[in-house]
TrEMBL record:
Gene Ontology molecular function, alphabetical: DNA-directed DNA polymerase activity
Name listed for the protein in its UniProt record: DNA polymerase
EC number(s) stated in the UniProt entry for this protein: 2.7.7.7
SMART domains recorded: POLBc
Stored InterPro entries: DNA-dir_DNA_pol_B, DNA-dir_DNA_pol_B_CS, DNA-dir_DNA_pol_B_exonuc, DNA-dir_DNA_pol_B_multi_dom, DNA/RNA_pol_sf, DNA_pol_B_thumb, DNA_pol_palm_dom_sf, DNA_pol_type-B
Enzyme class, UniProt record, top EC level: transferase
UniProt catalytic activity: DNA(n) + a 2'-deoxyribonucleoside 5'-triphosphate = DNA(n+1) + diphosphate
């Protein structure tokens, strides 16, 4: 029967052919549960130049392609007329693309997936309203049913879902043989689910096991039970850690080995896995599709949300965010050996460990509101909930439908030979040394505000050619832009207002999502991976940023202040030897904003949408020199951040303390040394104590280097970095490939060179003094207390 209109939220999407016609399958969640929407007889659409029309029609006839064409009032970005091509089936659509390429005929927008085009042209960004002919279908012999809506019609709607999640983690041996599968479910009718499926093949079942254990007798039973658990719980999202690259890959291989289908889809369909591995190398991202269920990898979600950690291991992230750790602390071979031992000898401990990993992932998702983040991102851009990266897709989703409505068809990707790099963000030369008081001012989202102010926009760039010169807004590298309401400025204005609203409501998830999206637009326009790339666009953003910082520097200097540094959207102003004090910070920001308001009105007849904010008060502040030079460094500094009603906070930027490739010894030494310097204390005793403790072996636990192996070990020929030497030595000593491309390695510099951590190695303390401690001390003490550096010479003589 025809269903009344319902609001829902899009979970997954798929396109396929049925009886020679294109079909779109959408899974949505709504107040009445999940629904499978079937949209039939849609067309796969692309465009071509009118000059190629006869050739394309002949091509379609010769190859019996069921494709129609239609004249359109649209032009390509090169100002040539285009017409539309409409394929009844995906098969004919892809065949046309291939034949056109072989005949050197250019099709426009042919790389956009038909289902994505269908949604973006209707401005559907997750939320939708749907109706159609509804019925229920029973799945196989089970009592479970699914809601199907045929002849579905959809349009924009409003619906904010609350997704149920199932956190999944596997334990296995080095060959992928499954020991157990842990599950932790959240959001199932206010109940928490805890289950561990255990493969007890040839193992004596203990009398006492955790109550959430399901004991099974083979890997085959384990996989079948996992299928059943997922179907019964029916989660909206399945989450995990390093989930697609590891857990899903292992599960897929185990299913193949056992002749089982991973029927995890809401309709009982099989999980679809596309392996990005080619010839033993990860050339493309792995992809997974489960009908009606979103698959989310916690690492990828956090990276998309701009989280940064020295290590994205579950143990490290859980420790930093939750203050909790995994139950097994070992890593690498030690961890594998422990898991193998527990599997046979102590199942209860392995079961608890397995479940704990699932629980940690669930807690991270809840505490950091990661589900809310991906939902918000989809609401703002229309990209899939599980999309990794997606900046270009987000921009295309938002921009392309508006470009069509203004009469333009987007170009294809620029050829590599035609790509021209645009200038990066402006970084001023710095004035090195210790400064008493520094004010840092920051332009709020400078690049988006430049786009909004100066109408930097792909279509505005085209339309400027047809208007009088005095009506154009000047850009850089030949770029000029039309005035009035243009697409990108309008999109950014809406996002900007939404972010201001989110900040006023203290909605950090929404505010952060909007910030990430807005800031990505510059990168997209400067990327050869974006169809709208033009060096005039990206350059008109970055070079205008250079101009803004230059103008700001001149203004501060006119006030009698010294600008000691500037970087992209921030400017560092010294109050030393001036009449200004910290209390004047807000006033200075307001006055510079007013100055820009007048300048843009007088020189460009534009409304200023850039806004400078007072960001930080440092007292004192240290800007180092470039090593081996008297010139000030860039993107490296330290300062004591002063905060009203709070203790001062020591901040490092780009220094050893915040770099993952320096030891804990260096980080500890730098932190304590800088605190002493900023407090005006003598540092000699502290330095002597550290050097003495180091020599006596009391700091050996702080000497570990951690590095990731980026390339194959054999590819390091001209130079061999220390971590590669350590990896090769460890592999040779153990007669197996412990370390390969992608591995993380922990090692120590010993008297015999770099080695992985063993109990009988002797550290090379001279190395740690010369390469870790002394460079840190020299950078700041050369300004503060040069005589203190003599202590190092005295200690090295003792070595």
């Amino acid at each position: 029967m025809t269903q009344e209109q319902l609001n829902g939220f899009l979970l997954t999407r798929k396109q396929f052919d049925l009886n020679g016609h294109c079909v779109f399958e959408l899974w949505v969640t709504s107040e009445t549960g999940s629904h499978q929407l079937i949209i039939e007889n849609e067309k796969a659409v692309c465009f071509a130049y009118e000059a190629e029309q006869a050739a394309i029609i002949t091509l379609c006839k010769q190859n019996q392609l069921n494709i129609t064409n239609k004249p359109l009032e649209l032009k390509a970005f090169d100002d040539k007329k285009v017409f539309g091509l409409y394929a009844n089936s995906l098969k004919d659509y892809h065949r046309l693309r291939k034949l056109a390429q072989e005949c050197s005929i250019e099709l426009l927008e042919a790389d956009i997936k038909p289902i994505d085009r269908f949604l973006m042209e209707r401005f559907i960004q997750g939320e939708l309203c749907f109706t159609g002919v509804a019925h229920q279908k029973q799945l196989n012999a089970s009592s479970q049913t699914i809601n199907i809506v045929n002849q579905a019609k959809i349009k924009q709607g409003e619906y904010s879902p609350k997704l149920s999640t199932l956190s999944v983690d596997i334990e296995c041996d080095e060959n992928g043989y499954l020991y157990s599968i842990g599950c932790n479910g959240v959001g199932f009718h206010n109940e928490t689910v805890e289950i561990v499926l255990y493969n007890g093949y040839q193992i004596t079942k203990p009398d006492l096991l955790p109550e959430y254990t399901i004991w099974l007798e083979s890997e085959w039973e384990l996989l079948l039970k996992f299928n059943q658990i997922v179907a019964e719980l029916d989660p909206d999202a399945i989450i995990g850690w390093n989930f697609v690259k590891f857990d899903i890959r292992v599960l897929v291989n185990a299913a193949k080995r056992n002749g089982i289908k991973l029927k995890l889809g809401r309709d009982g369909s099989e999980l679809e896995f596309i392996d990005g591995n080619r010839d033993g190398e990860q050339r493309y991202p792995d992809k997974v599709y489960v009908a009606g269920r979103v698959i989310l990898d916690g690492i990828e979600v956090m990276k998309n949300a701009t989280y940064s950690f020295p290590s994205f291991s579950l143990n490290n992230v859980a420790s930093e965010i939750l203050g909790e750790e995994k139950l097994i602390q070992e890593s690498g071979n030690d961890k594998l050996a422990e898991i193998k031992h527990l599997y046979k000898n102590d199942p209860s401990s392995l079961i608890k460990y397995n479940l704990q990993d699932c629980i940690l992932v669930s807690k991270i998702f809840i505490k950091e509101k990661l589900i809310e983040f991906v939902i918000t991102r989809t609401k703002l851009t229309g990209v899939e909930l599980d999309r990794v990266g997606g900046s270009v897709a987000a921009f295309t989703n938002l921009y392309l439908p508006h470009a069509h409505r203004k009469g333009w068809v987007a170009p294809n990707l620029v050829a590599v030979k035609d790509y021209v790099n645009s200038p990066g963000g402006f970084v001023m030369d710095s004035i090195p040394g210790i400064h008493k008081e520094i004010l840092v001012f920051d332009f709020k989202s400078l690049y988006p505000s430049i786009m909004r102010t100066f109408n930097v926009d792909p279509v505005a760039l085209l339309e400027a050619k047809t208007i009088d010169k005095d009506q154009r807004i000047p850009g850089f590298r030949g770029g000029e832009f039309s005035r009035g309401n243009v697409i990108l400025s309008t999109i950014l204005d809406k996002l900007w207002q939404a972010r201001e609203q989110a900040k006023s409501e203290q909605n950090k998830v929404l505010s952060n999502a909007i910030k990430i999206i807005m800031n990505s637009f510059y990168g997209v326009l400067g990327s050869s991976g974006c169809r709208f790339y033009d060096t005039k666009l990206a350059s008109s953003i970055t070079m205008r940023g250079h101009w803004v910082l230059h103008q700001s520097k001149l203004w501060f200097e006119q006030q009698g202040l010294t600008v000691i540094y500037g970087d992209t959207d921030s400017i560092f102003v010294s109050l030393d030897n001036s009449e200004f004090h910290f209390e004047h910070a807000e006033r200075l920001g307001i006055e510079l904003n007013n100055w820009f308001d007048n300048k843009l009105k007088d020189e460009f007849n534009l409304e200023n949408k850039m806004e400078l904010e007072f960001e930080t008060h440092f007292s004192p502040f240290f800007m180092p020199t470039i090593r081996g030079s008297e010139s000030g460094s860039k993107k490296r500094y330290a300062g004591m951040k002063q905060q009203l009603g709070k203790e001062p906070e020591l901040i490092f930027k780009g220094m050893e303390t915040v770099r993952s490739d320096w030891t804990e010894l260096a980080k500890m030494f730098q932190t304590n040394l800088f605190k002493r310097v900023f407090a005006g204390l003598n540092c000699d005793e502290y330095i002597s104590t550290i050097l003495s403790q180091l020599k006596q072996g009391e700091l050996d636990h702080l000497l570990i280097y951690r590095k990731r192996i980026r390339q194959k070990l054999e590819s390091y020929v001209k130079t061999t970095p220390p971590h590669i030497k350590a990896a090769r030595l460890a592999n040779s000593q153990n007669k197996e490939k412990l370390y390969t491309k992608g591995s993380s390695i922990e090692y120590i510099i010993t008297v015999n060179g770099p080695q992985v951590i063993l109990s009988n190695i002797i550290p090379n303390y001279e190395h740690y003094i010369e390469k870790q401690i002394f460079p840190i001390a020299e950078a700041i003490l050369a300004n503060y207390s040069p005589n203190s550096l003599k202590i190092f010479n005295q200690q090295l003589i003792l070595f």
